[in-house]
Design brief:
Length: 390
């Protein structure tokens, strides 16, 4: 956040003046005080985060779980696109991913691997999900929870929404590290542990998956991870997919990451298409949202976020279409692409509203098992911190 403090003279405070912004407040609380000053001070509320760590069992029997997670990533993103913290702040979304219970992982580390730490790079998160493979192994729930709490930067902002979702199908009690100690650590860090048992509801209770959730005020859910998710085709899907291709053409790669990241964008579109057409649509909707930001490699986002100054870019940093262009020409090109992108994103968002209305009208069965589990818990726990949806 940027703070502008323009001190024009001597400032005299008769009382300290502050403004508190908090997600658990309906409105910012103003503490009034007598103030004699010639200073001009502009403050913005602190940035809020939603931090979600997905801990996925990648043992032999979990292929169905992994496939559902690949598809449901975009449901999580789309859910938080319209979320507000209190009445003002739009939270940023960060997702981390761990795998556990796989023989290919280091036994000295408890068959646990951090696949990606907290990140807002949605293409990279998708890439990591698609990189997961299954193999037999030992599943230590307590240890993977403890590891994620220790390794990840959860922050100290009490208004951030911090959640762990752990999914698997073996007893929650396995391993040397007691799950009760791990959940106690989570509670100290204000992290809610939600457990998703892949199997019979009662079996999950008897193997302590429910207890693992209730110790932190989290939710216990049982899902059929091998169930084929039913997606409803709508008259708007094909148009959204076409717009998605047009949207890709508004990205201008720059720097050493540019070409690689732009290629990754297309690869993740293809990965979504391999799952199902509806997943491509959901991903396109995510790409039209405020949460899909790529200022590290895209000039349009970088200029908007003050990540780079065009005058500082070297010719070697630019894509082929901009090499040899003047600063003025580059700025105009970026501005034109920004206008084009905004128009396409708006079209996708408007079509998605019609798409969601069509689905709601024609929905006969429940949505995907993992989708239900994740979104239900997320909205319930977000509401407790005064998160609201447009």
């Amino acid at each position: 956040m940027k703070h502008l403090k323009n001190v024009l003279g001597i400032t005299i405070f008769s009382l300290m003046v502050g403004t508190t912004y908090a997600c658990n407040l309906k409105n910012p609380v103003q503490k009034n005080a007598t103030l004699l000053t010639t200073s001009t001070i502009k403050e913005k509320p602190a940035k809020q985060y939603v931090k979600i760590a997905l801990l996925l069992d990648t043992s032999n029997s979990m292929d169905g779980l992994i496939n559902q997670a690949k598809a449901q990533l975009w449901d999580i993103v789309n859910e938080f696109t319209h979320a507000k913290c209190g009445n003002e702040v739009r939270p940023s979304l960060q997702i981390a991913l761990y795998e556990y219970g796989n023989d290919n992982l280091d036994s000295n580390e408890g068959y646990i691997r951090q696949v990606i730490g907290f990140s807002g790079d949605l293409d990279e998160i998708s890439e990591k999900l698609f990189s997961l493979t299954t193999n037999g192994g030992e599943e230590y729930c307590g240890q993977v929870i403890h590891t994620s709490l220790k390794q990840l930067d959860w922050g100290k902002n009490a208004d951030d929404l911090k959640m762990i979702f752990i999914a698997g199908n073996e007893p929650f009690t396995q391993g040397r590290l007691n799950y009760r100690d791990a959940t106690s650590n989570a509670k100290e860090k204000d992290v809610i542990v939600n457990t998703i048992f892949c199997g019979n509801y009662e079996q999950g209770i008897s193997t302590k998956w429910k207890n693992g959730a209730t110790l932190t005020g989290g939710e216990y859910m049982a899902i059929d991870h091998n169930r084929q998710v039913v997606h409803i085709d709508t008259p708007y899907d094909d148009v959204i997919i076409r717009l998605n291709s047009q949207l890709n053409n508004t990205y201008i790669s720059y720097g050493y990451l540019g070409r690689e990241k732009k290629a990754l964008q297309s690869v993740q579109d293809s990965n979504a298409a391999e799952l199902e057409e509806a997943v491509v649509v959901k991903r396109a909707v995510s790409k039209s949202s405020r949460l899909y930001k790529n200022s590290k490699w895209d000039l349009v986002d970088a200029v908007e976020d003050d990540e780079v100054s065009i005058s500082d870019l070297k010719d070697k940093d630019l894509p082929t279409e901009l090499k040899g262009k003047s600063e003025k020409e580059i700025k105009q090109y970026v501005a034109d692409k920004k206008v084009e992108r905004d128009k396409i994103q708006k079209q996708i968002q408007e079509l998605n509203k019609k798409r969601e209305a069509y689905i709601a009208k024609n929905q006969k069965e429940e949505t995907g098992e993992l989708e239900n589990a994740l979104l239900s818990a997320i909205k319930n726990q977000a509401a407790k911190k005064n998160y609201k949806w447009d």
